[in-house]
Amino acid sequence: MSRDGQDNICILVTGANSGLGFSICCRLADEFLSSHPDPLHTLTVIFTTRSARKAQDTQKRLEAHLRAAAPSLSAAARVQFVPENVDLGDLVSVRDLSRRLVRTLSKLDAIVLNAGIGGWSGIDWPRAIWGVCTDLMQQVTWPTFKISPVGVVTDKQTDEKEDEPPLGATFCANVFGHYMLAHNVASLLKRGSNGPGRIVWVSSIEATTKAFDVEDIQGLRNATPYESSKALTDILALTSNLPSTAPWAVDSFLQSDPGVPDVTPNMYVSHPGICATAIVPLALPLVYAMVAAFWLARMLGSPWHTLSTYTGAASPVFLALSPQDAIDAADAPYHQAGGGRPKWGSSASRLGRGSVVCTEIDGWGYGGVVGGAVVEADRLRRRKRGAVDLTREEREKFEELGRQCWKQMEELRVKWESILDRAEARRQV
C-alpha cells in the first residue's frame, strides 16, 4: 500500500473527499515538503472516502494540487496519496478497513479523525435572521438556530436476527466509528517513525459540555447531537493521559498486542475554527450570505473565522506532522502551570493570516489551568460571552466526566466487538 522505512511518514486522514478533510491532505503535503527538505524523506497520506468513485476523484484532485504546489517533480514524487474506503457509521466497514491497514502497513505515524456528519435537518430561519442581525458574533460562532432530529440511529450493523442495542447515527459517525478504528490500529501507532504515533481528533468550536449528558452518551435524547458528539470528543482526548482514566484509556483502549512496543500513542484534539463548508447544505445565494457574515465577524475581531478550509486545516496538520518536541513546547506553558493538554484550534487574523492557538472550553479553561490564561496571546484573544476562569471544582468535575466517559466507551466497544464477532462467526459456518 505505501512506502516502508523510518524515513517515510505515514498518516491516515478520514473523510477526505471534500471540505476540511481534503484541505488537511493538501496541507500535509505542502507542509511536509517545506519542513522535510531531505530527498530521502517521503510522506504517505492514506485518505478515506465512502465510495470507490469518490476515492478516484479525490486522488486526482489531490495529485493535481501536489503537481501545482510542489517546487519540482522530484519533490512531488516524495508524496504519495493512497485511497481507502470506509463508512464510519458502519462498524463492519470500520473493522474491514482496520484489518486491511494492519495487514498492509508496518506502522502509522498519525491518524486524523476528521470524517463526520452534522445530523441537522434544517434551520430555524426566523431565529437565524434575528440572531445574525442582532448578535452577529455570537450567532455565527456558536449558533442556536440549527435544527436536529432527536433519536436518529444507524442502520442495523449486522445481518443477524438478534436484537442490537441502538447506536446513535451522529454519535457513531463522529465518535464511535473513529473510536473503534483507533483502537484497532493502535498497534501500528506504537511503531511510529519517531516514537509513539498520534491520534488527532477533529472537534468543533461549538463543542460544549453544556450540550452533553453523560447519562445519554450517544445523544439519543439530545436535541443537539452534533454538539454533544463534539463535546464527547473533547472530553475523551483531553482526559486520555490522566491517571483517573488510565484503566480504560491506556490499559484497555490502547492496550499492547504481543510483539508490539510497549509505548502509548499520544491523543490530541483540534478544531478548524469556522470554515465555509457544505456541512449545512444551503442554496447558492445563502452560501454567499454565510461567507459575508463570517468575513464580517472576522473584521469585528473574531479569531475563529478561518473561512478557508485550508486555513482551518492548520491545527490538525500541526498536531499530525510536527516534531514531538514542537508539540511538547507548545503544551509546556500549560503543563508548567499545573494544567494538561490544550485544545488546539485554527485561528485567523483580520487579514486572514492563519495560526494555531489554544482554545478555551467549558470545564477545562485554557489547557486545564486553574484560573485565568497563562499565555499572553490567550489573554488578549476575544472570549466567548459568559466565559469564566476555570475553578478547581470545575476542573475536578471535568476529570470525573472524563473517567465516566472512558469507562462507558470501553464498555460499549467491548459489547459491539462481541456482537460483530458473533455475526462474523455465523457467516463463516
Concise synopsis of the structure shown:
The protein is an alpha/beta fold.
Please write out the topology:
Layout: E1 8-13, H1 19-35, E2 42-49, H2 52-69, H3 73-76, E3 79-85, H4 91-104, E4 110-113, E5 122-123, H5 125-134, H6 136-139, E6 146-147, H7 169-184, H8 186-189, E7 198-202, H9 225-238, H10 246-253, E8 266-271, H11 284-299, H12 309-312, H13 314-321, H14 324-336, E9 343-348, E10 354-359, H15 376-380, H16 392-428
Parallel strand pairs: 1-2, 1-4, 2-3, 4-7, 7-8, 8-9
Antiparallel strand pairs: 5-6, 9-10
> H/E order of the elements?
EHEHHEHEEHHEHHEHHEHHHHEEHH
Q: Please, how many helices?
A: 16
Largest sheet: spatial strand order:
3-2-1-4-7-8-9-10
> CATH top level?
Alpha Beta
Low-confidence sequence ranges: none
Structure classification: alpha/beta
Round the mean pLDDT to the nearest integer and report it.
Answer: 93
